[in-house]
Amino acid sequence: MTQPMGETDIPTLQDAWDPREDVLQGKIRDESLAADAHEVAYGNNVPDVYDDTETFFDLTYPTSGVTGVIEAVAQRVIAHYRGEFPEENGTITLDTSFGGGKTHSQIAAYHLAEHSDEIPDLTRYTQSDETAHEYRALENNKSVLTSVFVGTKYAPKPVKPKQVRQGEHTPEIQTIWGHIAYQLYGVEGYQVVSSGNNLVAPGEQLLSNLFSLSDEAAVIIMDEIAAHLSHATAVSVNDGNLAEQTLNFLMALFNYASNNSDVTVIMSVAADAFEDFATIFERDLSYDDEVMDADVSIPIAKETIQEFQNIEERVANKITPVEDSNVADVLRNRLFKNNIETGLREDIAQRYYDFYDADSSSFPDEASQPEARERIEQTYPFHPTVVDTLTKQIDAVPSFQKARGALKLLAPAVMRLWTDEGQGPLTADRELIRLYDLHPQDERTSKMLKSIFGDIEMDFEPAVKDDIYNTDPNDTPNALYEDKYWINRGQPPLGTRVVTTTIWKSLVKGAGSKGTSRDYIRYASAKPGETIDHYNSAIGNLLGESDESACFYLHGENNQQLKFKTIVTVEKAINQANPRTSRVDNLLDETLYNAALGGSSMTIYENPQAVHEVDDTIETLGQLVVVEPSTLTISEPDDITETVVTKIYERSASSKHGNKKPRTYKNNLIFLVPGIRISRARSKAGRLASVRVVQDNPDDFGLQDAQLDELPTKRDEARGDLENLVKNAYSHVYIPSNPSPDQPHEGLAHYNITVTDSTLINAVIAKLEDSGEVITNNEPAYSPNWLENNLWMAVGDSMTTVELKQQIGKQRSAEILLDPRPLQKTIRRAIRESDSKFAYWNHHHERGYVDPSAFEEIFDERNETVTFDEAHNLVAAEELEDVGIDSSEEVYESTETLIESVAVTWQCSDCGDYLDSTREYAEHSCQIEIECGQCPDTFSTQQEYEQHLPCGTNYDCSNCGRTFNTEESLTEHQPCPWPQTVVGKTDSPAVVTEAVDTITAEIEDKVTQIKHNFNSSTHEIKQSLDGLTLKLQGDDAWKKGEWIAKQMPEQDGLQNVAVELEYEARYDDSHVETHFDGTGKMFADTLKHTNKPSGSPDDQYIEILIKADTSLELNRLDILEDIIPGATTIEMSVRTALELTEDEKQEMTP
């Protein structure tokens, strides 16, 4: 759902915040983040951010820990110079779990002691203004001595100190106390603590003597003591080791500081300093890069460090420089010059809280909790998920370096957000910094990611390269394909948002808490006004619902946690399959001709390359020329000029080397050409081929069993997608037409087609039918005027029906004829209508059909005394039923031209003689005597005889009911051909509409032949449905049988018919048979309460025989379309009973 937001004055990130110059210039790098108190005190090339006091404090956020250290040191210095005993403990331990504070606090203390006058506003960094003012008062008259000892800088062996005092001999120093004494008081101090054996720790008295060398306060800063101690265990001193002496010194120093004001000790101890001994031990402790690990006893070193921990916990005043609640403040202060007033923070927090709360089911519970609003306000401009991930998840990774690592990630993100000025797809219209801003397109971020991958022992580099980001212009990561999809629709780059957030949530060693949920992705990425469902779609696409953007290493199917793994997904295997080009081409062709164009009655020409490959004929109606993409792919309709389309349209040839000539039957051509979307279909064919390669060679791809189980579904989805893409790619249809200026080629009209649920061929026909460009089998008869205006091109007075059909193929102004039946119906209508002038002659039967009134007028004008009834081979035009497309069937432009052109015969009604002309008929005189077969009477004319009938005994036929006047006539009638049975059936399975059309046409043809044989007409024979057999096969045969049973009782005429059912299912070693015999209603009730046979048979079919009563007419077959699902393919057989009408019984003569 979308959460609409009202008008708001909330500024974007770029409008609200002002990054520091070194951030915008990309200068925050390792060296500028590597805080080192020892280098600040004694080094030469220290970055200004640490060395320059003013710059340092400008970049330092006054956390409670930092102000606590400054306050404690200042108070002890003030107390010393006042001669008072301080309340603060003399030993301060800095302890933090997130880092970025302990070394920083040490440097802050060092600058306070050495350069306090350069701190711009000391009150900002003390816990009371009074302390700051009192300390300032001492600056002009008093100074503070400092010592900085870092255990990783000094090996426990004789070395010269880092700082050299001018005019003094510089001794080699081996101990902590020696270094501290020299740093504070020079050689004199070193001599005080080194009298006698310089490896034996000084006690409190010697320390008192040492600190008495000056009245100035001293601040001693120590770091990495545990690391130094571990190596000092290898140096022997008397009966022990130097580490033991060092512990003695530290204990004496801590005690001295607790009882005196002139010394303050600041020591940093990380929370895990005493837990990860291996890390401590492996550090390089040597000043000159020589490592002294050979004689270290690990058990002794562990014991020593544990003792140091015990001492530290007893005497130290612990301060945590950076609390969790300060992390966002520290990061914000380092990255930005300015801060934001509370009101704006509250507005943004409220806006996002309302967004999450309004659709709480789409986000984690934490997003809509009351404290969530305060959390957003606290972390702004960082989204809470950024701070949580950096401080509670990745900070446990050793190479991350905690606060330093967070800044190294956030600095390039900020630089990119501001360098883009909020205009790029990843940075536009932003109010918060997100996890997806920590993107590997920045070299520093990429480097840190690789380091983390090594720490967690998970090689995610291939995942980043294939799914998130790489610099290869020829290898687009999958997320960018998904981004393109959304950006083209005016949406943000959701692919990059999802995968970048997920990779950071996958950086956990082991599998326990790796990954994240979908609601967390939405929480970490979505902003008010965006459509949440888009994120769901993007996640689905990245997981494989879209093969174009499916990730290779992203897992999370079936609503599981989203996470990156080093195990490839099924999509990666499919992508690597690399099928042969020929295999892809074959799949594309197979889909086109079998699935998209299958079942067509049209003649299909597959990708012809020359004009002779397409016949110039009208014998087969509707020639569909399919052009394959390898031959022609068009983006605009005009792209067909000088292509195979126009060449075939214009010319024809009998053979490859035959002479080319203008094509005669242009109006029988339909061209189907692919558009540019065929590239997507080809890509999908490649995917289907790839899936099959993986299925055929599973061992080559290292997939697990569960992944192999996904392949059949992937295959079926690809096959279905491919069929739809092929259908939609073939969107250009060209047909002949009268020339016009707007045509892509003279005489060719263009149509765009869109396929929804039908086959491609049906979509083509439907489009052309809707546009009035084709004549299909269900078209009614056209008017006589249409025939005359479009087809009548007679050289003489007549045209055969074949010539009329040919004329349709020649005339581009006419519709394309796809079935002969509408033409036959049109010719019959032109003959039968009373106001039509046309007449019809069948040479095969020597019979003509004319208008009787026109006949009478002709002979009246000739003054010839003949009647229409006397014309033996002429029939009233209205009696014409069957018109064939044949050269023996001819249409005349009038009754008169027919009479003048054909041999009309005249029959004497008395003697029955046939005469060839009206003159012979007029001159004919016959002398006959007709005897009545049942009485002795004789007659001189036929008319007298017929008036005499009936006479005597009648003889009825027991089969057809006809009455005969004589027994001889009845005997001659036998065997009686009535009643008759006609059967129509399908040759192969077909959908119900096609099956009904096929059978109806077959029965009509057979009935027509019968009527020819018996000189009958449609109205003289009664047709009724005698039996209907339906056969369904396939996995759902039983289910469809149930559906038919359910529908049958609801149809008029089928409730009481007799029904038989046979069902058979074959298994590997058995088979099941079911039989039923009863009424239609009983059939429905029986199947309703009969359980479907269990299991999955190898083959099954169901056969239903409907024994219809005589009340069900043949034309009621359309009932089947109501009781059989439209997409079901069936085999059908129909048995029809034919019997004579009562009138026919009296008139029909075999």
UniProtKB/TrEMBL annotation:
Q: Where is the C2H2-type domain?
A: 955-974
The protein's name is DUF499 domain protein
Entry-linked Gene3D superfamilies: Classic Zinc Finger (3.30.160.60)
Q: Which InterPro entries match?
A: DUF499 (IPR007555), Znf_C2H2_type (IPR013087)
Protein source organism: Haloquadratum walsbyi (strain DSM 16854 / JCM 12705 / C23)
Name the domain of life this protein comes from. Archaea
